[in-house]
Predict the structure.
Amino acid sequence: MPPAPTTTSRSTTGPPATGATSWAPSVATAPRRPSPPFCVSDACGRQLTGLSGEITSPRYPESYPNDAECRWSIGAAGGPVTLVFADFQMEGGQGCGFDYVALFDGPTASAPRLGRYCGSARPPRTVSSTQHLLVLFKSDFNIVGRGFKAHFYSAGECQEVYTAIKGNFSSPQYPNFYPNNLQCQWSIQLPPGYRIKIFFLDLELEARSSLTGGCDYDRLSAFDGGAENASLLGTWCGHDSPVPVTSRGHRLLLVLRTDRSTAKRGFSLAYVGGHGQQLGCCLDLVPCPSPFQGWFIRSRFAR
């Protein structure tokens, strides 16, 4: 990661912007050598669709240009949009009146503003109330920083309900690194009388705490029911190799939580539903009765 610019003071030519929802302490950066002109080839901002993606300030991780204005309008068909900043370093100042990122709860800047941020503190995880989120980046005529990198994803990727008898799913962006500050849920809901068995195909999360030995940072947990107050079936992190887990009822909930730093590949798993005798046969190298036979063997070793 490039070093942060050296710090000095900056005199203001007018009052700070009003209505700022967040601001960093007035720790500005010393002027650097003039940036090259902001050419057409540096054009930034666009319409973004899909379940997930990444946006960065122009020229990131190099210093962004002066006098830039970029707009990313994110539209996700799966539901509300979640935006998580992985890196953030811009000119600071009370009110964020110089360089800033502003977030709006809709496709345009006329939508309600969710926040306005500058400085070196990463903005909080932001969730829109609609299927659209606008990210506006502006820089003024002087003093630049590294800029930002952010990930977005929709509820369609991170809040899923499965009702099929068999299936498989993985963490956001798998096998690439998952975003920070996640709180994802996958709920498997089958008809009464069924039980659910999950098989871990791959798992790599942030390692256990060296102090406590627990999954204090990033973790995947399974609950024997439809909510987090149900019995805990297991919690995993690091390079754990979990054995298959079976529910006692017809619902099972998987929850992935990640913190503000250190991301890994994530996880991939498969599940099957059936009655007790069927699931008892579904061990790693034992064939499963129809309809699981063949499908499970393919899923188990699909890496």
Summary: Residues 1-42, 283-303 have pLDDT under 50 and may be disordered.
